[in-house]
Amino acid sequence: MKKRAEQWGSVTKLLSERMRRTAALVTRGNRTADIGCDHAYTSIYLVQQGIAPRVVAMDINAGPLARAKENVVKFGLEEQIELRQSDGLSALAPSEAETVLIAGMGGPLTERILTAFPKTLASIKELVLQPQSETEGVRRFLHRAGFRIAAEDMVSEDGKYYVMLRAEHGKETPWSEEEYLYGKLLIAAGTPVLKEYLETERCKTEELLRELETFETEKARKRRDELLLRLERNLCAAKKL
Question: Which residue in 119, 163, 204, 231 has its CB near the most CB atoms, within 10 A?
Answer without folding.
Answer: 163
